[in-house]
Amino acid sequence: MKITLLDGSVKEFDKALTVKEIAENIAVSLKKATVGAVIDGNQKVASDYLVDKDCTLELVTNKQEGMYDEFISSTAAAISAYATDQVFKDAQIAEVFYNADEYEFAFTFHRDERLKLEQVSKIQDEVNKLLTTDIKIENKKVTETNDLGLNTYQLHTADEEIYKKGYAIVTTINDTYKIVSSEPICVEDKLLKEIHLQQLTGSYWLDDSKNVMLQRIHGLAATSKKELDKKEEILKDRRSRDHREINKTLEIFDFDPLIGQGLPIWLPNGTILKDTIKDYLKEKEWEYDYVQVQTPVIGTLDLYRTSGHLDHYRDDMFQPFKAGNEEFVLKPMSCPHHIAIYRSKPRSYRDLPLRYAEHALQHRYESSGSLTGLERVRAMELTDSHIFVRPDQVEEEFKSIYKLIEEVLATFHIDIDYLSFSVRDPEDKEKYYQNDEMWDRAEAELEGVLKDLNLPYKKMVGEAAFYGPKLDIQAKTAQNHEITISTIQLDFLLPEKFDLTYVDEKGQLTRPIMIHRGLIGTYERFVATLLEQTKGVLPVWLAPNQIEIIPVGGTDAEKYAEQIRQEFKKRHLRSHIDLRDERLSYKIRDAQVHKIPYQLVLGKNEIDNNTLTYRKYGSEEQTTIPANEFYDLVSKQVAEKQ
């Protein structure tokens, strides 16, 4: 048996060995540090797993923080599930999870009587007691589920594991309790020093709203109190930067279960913010010779059947509905609609490139468990565009699109994580349209442009759209989720499916190439990103309320405040007068809490001298200047997108 280690070295053994025994063979100290391994790059196993054939092996120790935490946390989840079973005998454990973004574990269970949050403390007490004992954990590899004594949920998990990997791991705790998990469960229970159960939520079994709603307990695990405190501090910081938390103060958006999950409502402040962004984007699109179009929010099933979306994205689309003899579906993407505009009349090579832009309302059926504030929704407005070009125009058009995106993101000061160049997996015959020549040409052209632009990128095999390769501009959210901000996608397929043509310089009908462009993705996700990266401190030009006016001294001050507000309106500056019967210090503090860029304090001195006294957000310094000078100051900031 040949075992290839991470450094490329090869170890040969004449018999099957556990992961722990292989570690010991390398170094005695490594045996003690090893909690498991990753086999062939994707199979995570505990240290007692028996390796019986040639493979690559990455031993997992505390030097690999992320992987190590997954092993430790998954074990904590299993112990917590066991504790739940001990306290509530009627609880049927369903699944065990690990969320790397949140450093947390979770487990779901079914129980006729729903737990109250205070009852979780009983489980916590049992967990604490277990941590003071020697917990016996054993893993057994099985290839069939007969006579395992598992509940219905666990049997399903075992069957799924056997289907995917050819086996399942049944973990037995203290000789009596059995659990099956797709996550690795360590036998080294003594490494665990801290398990904190944090919250009680719910989720549908298999994330399907047609199934029963299970109860879900979340927790953190660590090998020391210091490590646990560090995790909690990181999570506290993330929560403070979460756009959902920031929204509680800024009042940008809302959701109402009566309207529906994942269907955002833009509140007045959010509508101002969104419209301000949209006005700027449309100016930039005009500058780059895009033409604005509008298309319906529905389309026929035949439209999406022709485009191929029905075959490839059906699970992400809302259910079709009938009207008379026709079947429609809510629009999940706009490319087929823009193709219809292209086909509306004959095209010449002189017409190209033809750039259609639409700020398009779209609907996609995201699972309820994946919905995350504005980051992941079911109704969205996409900054969409489809550009039709000749083959000789692809390179220059791609560069032009990237330049536009680069300028826009720089205006908003968006921090980018990396560029993802997504290509197909040639072995995947189901996901991708089968035309090797088309794919090879498209991928080579796009990669050539990336190299010409000297852009650093990660090549992601198997991540392309079904119709062509793409470049995605990726960012990280406050919750450490990876999201796509902007995208450029080459498409040789849809022009063929819809038989698009133009007349070339020789008078021959020729096939155009289509480029899909998402300028800043959806407004929903972009605003979520903007709020998180600015921590809600929006620049003056974007702030829904740019200036809070606080009159002090009765009627005269209030009249002056209204006079100033009207001057702001003439200059299209957004302001609000605070007439509440509150102390001045309270009003100033409240304006700071709401992150309003400027607060004006107007009293007798300002009235007599036609001046304004202002302070900026985050500053205690007050400045008094002539009113006209302040108008110019703020107007200049807005004009320069500051």
UniProtKB/TrEMBL annotation:
GO terms for biological process: threonyl-tRNA aminoacylation. Keywords: Aminoacyl-tRNA synthetase, ATP-binding, Cytoplasm, Ligase, Metal-binding, Nucleotide-binding, Protein biosynthesis, RNA-binding, tRNA-binding, Zinc. It is found in: Cytoplasm. GO terms for molecular function: ATP binding; metal ion binding; threonine-tRNA ligase activity; tRNA binding. GO terms for cellular component: cytoplasm. Its EC number is 6.1.1.3. Gene3D superfamilies: 3.10.20.30, 3.30.54.20, Anticodon-binding domain, Bira Bifunctional Protein, Domain 2, Threonyl-trna Synthetase, Chain A, domain 2. Binds 1 zinc ion per subunit. Pfam families: HGTP_anticodon (PF03129), TGS (PF02824), tRNA-synt_2b (PF00587). It is an enzyme of class 6 (ligase). Its cofactor is Zn(2+). Its main location: cytoplasm. InterPro entries: aa-tRNA-synt_IIb (IPR002314), aa-tRNA-synth_II (IPR006195), aa-tRNA-synth_II/BPL/LPL (IPR045864), Anticodon-bd (IPR004154), Anticodon-bd_dom_sf (IPR036621), Beta-grasp_dom_sf (IPR012675), TGS (IPR004095), TGS-like (IPR012676). PROSITE patterns: AA_TRNA_LIGASE_II, TGS. Zn(2+) binds at residues 335, 386, 516. Homodimer. Belongs to the class-II aminoacyl-tRNA synthetase family. This is Threonine--tRNA ligase. It comes from Mesoplasma lactucae ATCC 49193.
